[in-house]
Every structure is written in C-alpha cells, then in structure tokens.
Amino acid sequence: MSDTSEVIAYCPGSFDPITNGHLDIIERAAQLFDRVIIGVALIAEKTHLFSPEERLAMCREACAHLPNVTVRTFEGLLVEAVHQAGARIIIKGLRQAADLSHEAPMATMNRSLRPEIETLFLLASPTYAFISSSLIKWVCSMGGDVSAQVPPGVAPKLTQRLAEAAP
Length: 167
Ligand code: PNS
Description:
The protein has 167 residues and is an alpha/beta fold. 41% of the residues lie in helices and 20% in strands. The protein has a single domain, classed as Rossmann fold, CATH 3.40.50.620. The protein has six helices and five strands; from the N terminus they run βαβαβαβαβαα. It has a five-stranded parallel β-sheet, with helices on both faces. Strand 1, helix 1 and strand 2 form a beta-alpha-beta unit.
C-alpha cells in the first residue's frame, strides 16, 4: 500500500548492467526521497547483453543495502510507469554535456505527456563521470578488469556472459 504523503522518485534505465555510476545516483536519490523505485526498461528493439530477469536481479543485489529502494521492470511509456507507481519525479544522472543533449528532448516530451511529472537531474560524481555500461562491456570483452566500475557480483557475470557471446 502506498502512503500518499511519501515522495517517490523513479530511476529508469536499461541497467545492462548496473554500474557504480548508476548506484551513486541511486544512493544519492535514496537520501533525498522517501522511496526510490528503479525501473528496468524492457525495450524490444534494443539488444541487451543480459535478460530482463538478470538485469533486475543485479539491480536488486546492488541495492540490497538501501531499505527504501525497490526494483521493478517497466514496458512502454516511462511516464505511464511512473504515474502507475505513484511517483511524480524521474531521476536521471548527467555525466557530461552530451548527456543533457540526449536527455533534454526526452524530459521535455515526458513533461508534455504528463505535466505533473518532473525530471530532476543529478550530476554524476567525478569518479563516475566517464563510466557507461557500453564502455564497461567493451573493455571487459577485451579482457580488461572492470571490477572497480561495477557493484560486486556484476564483473564475474559480465566476464562469463561475454565469454559465452564471443565468436
Ligand atoms: O539506460 P538508458 O538506456 O539510457 O535508459 C533509457 C530509458 C529506458 C530511460 C528511455 O529509453 C525510456 O525512457 N524508455 C521508455 C520509453 C519512453 O517513454 N519513450 C519516450 C521518451 S520521451
């Protein structure tokens, strides 16, 4: 049951896989809001390394120490998932200026679809300003150690999956 006085923030993403950069934003959001919901996006057109269940499980494991954070999947329009979750705030992390160019049209469109829902941006901590799931997968696929960039448990799964996927 959701308490209407609670302020709930929704953190959406592909999380393929979750990185320490994502976790930094989630931990900071968890300090700011009563509850944080992580929405793992199911997007049929996108190719992912990990299945939705695997991405969900890695997010849950990474956030197990955060009592006010829950993880779920969503399909279709983000703003509808946010509305159905009882949230009115979307949290996005910004690493560099290029992220804003990518995020601004989506935030504007989302606001025109549901004006009551605001997108708030948190600036990435400097340590994580250049981390992305894509970069981590690329480096790991060539044998690089990415264990400092992802939550414990993710690096072995990445190594195993990329080895399975290798030609
Ligand atoms: O981690 P990502 O891949 O950058 O996350 C992108 C995501 C899932 C947040 C974005 O693709 C999204 O919001 N998808 C849901 C579909 C939607 O609402 N599209 C219209 C946005 S204006």
